[in-house]
Amino acid sequence: MADQESSPKKKRSKRNCMYGLLIIVSVLFIAWPFITWGSLGIADWLFEGINFPETSRFGISGDMYGGLNALFSGSAFICFIYALRQQRLELQLQRRELSLQRRELKAQCREQERQANEFELQNKLMKNQQFESFFYQQIVFIKSIYTENRALLKGPNKNIDFINDVISFINDIEKNIMEFKIGNYGVSYFYWIGDCILTIRPWIDSTYNFILMIITEDFLNKKQKEKYLYIIKNMFPQKDWDLIYFLGVIFKYDKIKNYLLYKGLFERNDFIERLSEDNIQFLQNEMKLKSNLSLESCEIEL
After folding, report:
1. How far apart are CA 45 and CA 41, in angstroms?
2. DSSP H stretches of helix in 153-221
3. Rounded to whole angstroms, how far apart are CA atoms 199 and 189?
4. In 3D, which of 230, 235, 231 has the Cα closest to residue 263?
């Protein structure tokens, strides 16, 4: 602040000096003829007998203007040097101001970058908190569907679990399909298995949709995705989790199923994986197991 206040005062002082010098030179230039003729008159008075002719007076006056011209030339050169020096000082000040402006801009850019990073971090934290809240709400929802669907697959006395029949059928699915095609497998039992699968279809599709949402969520990193997927896996008994895997093969949810296999969340069953496309299509047609297109055609990067 002190430098900024003293700078205008210095400029005014220099301007006043220039104006004073200009006034002195102008007065001197105007008064010079009078000074010359006065000097010659004093010389006549001091040196009696010297009588300068008029033409000599004009010559002497002109010669004395030569000295004044030299003074003016010297003054002009000094002014030129002074102007160069002032210009150099102004350029230095401009460079210093530009340097300060660059520093201020860099500081502003750093501050804006810091604020942007802080905002991004806060936004990401808020999204994570919102997602976590939604995740556990969805867990409760899927558990309720699972409980309702599983209850429908229990016998009247609740001691029989028909889900075991579905798993047994799938574990020997190639043979069962072949037996059914040649008429050696109970037709009613075959279609009853299809009804059991349709009964638990809401639970299976809800679980796969939930898994797909977690996999495709952009702001979640790999560790967060794996954490949430393991929570989903651990909410079911192992045989029910295996059933989710088996039905994912039958419904052709291959991309989600392969992702879970790649991450080690599903345990690969080569017997199920070798199930031919024709047999899968046969099951879907006979048991009326229509595939969910959004789950079948989704895009997932491993």
Report:
1. 6
2. 163-171, 173-181, 187-199, 201-215
3. 15
4. 230
pLDDT tens-digit profile of 120-178? 888 888 888 899 999 999 999 999 999 888 888 775 555 567 788 888 888 888 888 88
CA dist 267 and 273 (Å) reads 11
- For the beta carbon of residue 9, count every other beta carbon within 10 angstroms: 9
Backbone dihedral angles phi then psi of residue 161, each to the nearest 5 degrees: -110, 105
CA-closest candidate to residue 255, choices 290, 291, 284, 219: 291
pTM of the predicted structure, to 2 decimals: 0.64
Would residue 264 be called left, alpha or beta, if left means φ above 0 and alpha means ψ between -120 and 50 degrees? left
Interacting residues of 217 by C-beta distance below 8 A, sequence separation 6+: 131, 225
Q: Which residues contact 161 (CB under 8 A, 6 or more apart)?
A: 153, 154, 155
